[in-house]
Amino acid sequence: xxxxxxxxxxxxxxxxxxxxxxxxxxxxxxxxxxxxxxxxxxxxxxxxxxxxxxxxxxxxxxxxxxxxxxxxxxxxxxxxxxxxxxxxxxxxxxxxxxxxxxxxxxxxxxxxxxxxxxxxxxxxxxxxxxxxxxxxxxxxxxxxxxxx
Length: 148
Ligand SMILES: CC(C)(COP(=O)(O)OP(=O)(O)OC[C@H]1O[C@@H](n2cnc3c(N)ncnc32)[C@H](O)[C@@H]1OP(=O)(O)O)[C@@H](O)C(=O)NCCC(=O)NCCS
Known about the structure:
By secondary structure, this protein is of the alpha+beta class. It contains 4 helices and 7 strands, in the order E-H-H-E-E-E-H-E-H-E-E.
């Protein structure tokens, strides 16, 4: 059975190959370790299939907004609604009252990333603007926002 749980440092060795498989400019091990252990505003979930990490979602909450840093599902596990489940879990867990209520979720995604843009639209995100040459290789980003 596949479940979603908070990521722990011991998951890093299974997160890293997924990072390298899924992204054109993967984060370094040290960056992921920082997110898992030190970044006070980071939240990190993994998809766990009987002890095997098969995907993850990594986001930050700052004041009234959350920002998705990365979402990834390893190839063999795609097209089963797992990315959607990760996103739904994040929406459920966002603070909804008190001083830290999250009103917006934002993200940047490569303009060519049809799968991710479709996923985000399905989750209620709207395209706000293109950010020209946002990535180191010169590709534009699409900036998307969902109002909670
Ligand atoms: C984007 C990604 C996370 C989707 O994971 P997934 O578990 O296969 O997605 P789901 O099965 O939950 O799909 C949900 C929706 O996303 C969209 N989607 C997913 N894969 C798609 C594809 N290959 N083409 C078009 N739309 C796609 C669809 O709208 C889909 O809904 P549908 O099944 O009703 O059509 C996965 O392809 C991935 O890891 N890609 C590499 C990393 C990446 O680009 N991350 C996003 C930028 S941070």
